[in-house]
Amino acid sequence: MIELEGVPELIDPVMVAAFEGWNDAGDAASTAVAHLEREWKGEVFAALDAEDYYDFQVNRPTVFMDGGVRKITWPTTRLSVVRVGGEKPRDLVLVRGIEPSMRWRSFCNELLGFAHELGVELVVILGALLGDTPHTRPVPISGTTSDSDLARRMDLEETKYEGPTGIVGVLQEACTHAGVPAVSLWAAVPHYVSQPPNPKATLALLNRLEDLLDLRIPLGELPEDARAWQVGVDQLAAEDSEVAEYVQTLEEARDTAELPEASGEAIAREFERYLRRRDGGGPPSGGHATADGGEGGSYLRDGPGGRTRPSRPAKPDTEAETEAEAETEPEPEAGDEDSSED
Question: Which pLDDT score is estimated for 174?
């Protein structure tokens, strides 16, 4: 039974969800929702029963001391509500958890039950995938939906992905069958520097969410963290000539692919986004699923000082058609996949 006592009547509510695991390269998506919850001081009002959806040998509970009392935190998915002020206030229902180990259909139905009871008008699911993208360029963000009308209205890609998927793809499809408008936003994380955190990818997701929902998100120290992350990766990549050469190859491929997009219309759109952020008082924007649907291996582990060092990557299989390529950068879905499938 869904209990929503203490939750006020919501204003134009939108559900924003992210799940740790295969859909969350670099922890970019789950960190984005955590940022929203922290900045807007979200209050948790509900949690799914961990016994129903999680294998505790895969996602183990943690023990902590609270005032001398030993307690256990169980892995689960929690919901909170935050109110976004301004001229047009609205509420966000934030869903943050771990990709479930079992009973995915029941899991999605329970979340949709909350959405129905709260009057949610749109579901936005955030994801991140490992892809062949250089860390030196803007993070590619793809927005996908299964609804052709919604794709036209919100300037999104109508997903055509086929292949393995994760909870992001399953939840989006469940929303579609339930008649709830749903969108997935996917960030492409460089596969050669996959170790979390990745503040640059988190920032890119939040910027895209701002554009999608037409709201202002307080970014705090995230832009500075993103700049520091890129400087750190630059330094580490420069120490390995093979990695530096590989990054340059990715840069050239990315620049060549995007050249046709450097039209007057595209530049105007980016300038409008910059002006909106500037006028709003904020700074300008600045094993996971992979673009081909596979499981990303461990690349670089944390080095001294906690920085992530790009591992020496193998050349990607250029003949493999990636999901991202099938849909636009990361048309992610299933591993991105996950991402695209929705």
Answer: 96
Look at residue 187 and tell me whether its pLDDT is greater than 90: yes
Buried b (16+ CB within 10 A) or exposed e, 19-39: bbbbbbbbbbbbbbbbbbbee
User: What are 203's strand-pairing partners?
Assistant: none
CA distance 143 to 304: 36
Sequence-distant (≥ 6) Cβ neighbours of residue 320 within 8 angstroms: 292
Question: Among all chains, which residue has been given the structure tokens 């919501």?
Answer: 10
- DSSP 8-state secondary structure symbol assigned to residue 27: G
Round the average pLDDT of the chain to a whole number and report it.
81
Largest Cα–Cα separation, the chain: 63
Structure tokens at 264: 């007057």
What is the β-pairing status of strands 43-47 and 157-158?
unpaired
pLDDT given for residue 305 in this prediction: 37
Q: How confident is the model at residue 6 (pLDDT cuts 50, 70, 90)?
A: low
Instruction: Count other C-beta atoms under 10 Å from residue 150's C-beta.
Output: 16
SS3 of the chain: helix, strand, coil, percent, to 5:
40, 20, 40
Nearest-10 crossing angle of helices 264-279, 199-213: 90
Reported as type and span, the H/E element at residue 92 is strand 90-98
pLDDT band at 114 (very low <50, low <70, confident <90, very high): very high
CA atoms within 13 A on the CB side of 37: 22
**Percentage of residues in the chain having pLDDT higher than 90:** 57
* Confidence at 54, pLDDT banded by 50, 70, 90: very high
Contact call for residues 74 and 49 (beta carbons, < 8 A): no
Measured CA to CA, the distance from residue 58 to residue 62 in angstroms comes to 12
The verdict on pTM exceeding 0.85 is no
DSSP 8-state code for residue 313: P
Nearest to 138 by CA among 285, 244, 29: 285
